[in-house]
Amino acid sequence: MKKIKILVAGIVLIGIAGAAGYYLRKGRTVAATGVTHGGGIEILKAAQLNAGMALKTHLDSPVGKAWRTKDFTQLHSMFGLKKNVQDNISFFQASIYILDVTKPDWKLEERKSLEELQTAIADYMMAKRDKPVLGPEAQALSYASKVLLKFNSIPEESIKAMSNFYGVANSEGQRNQKDIVGETLLRMNPVPERGRKIVREKIYSKQDPYQGVVLIAQMRDAMAATELWNEVAKNFSSYPAQYRSMIFKQLVIRHQLIKTDLSVHLDSLLKDGNENSQDAFLVGVRELDIVSKYRSDIQNIANLTQYPETKILALSLLNISGGAK
Question: Pseudo-torsion of CA 163, 169, 174, 176, nearest 10°?
Answer without folding.
Answer: 40
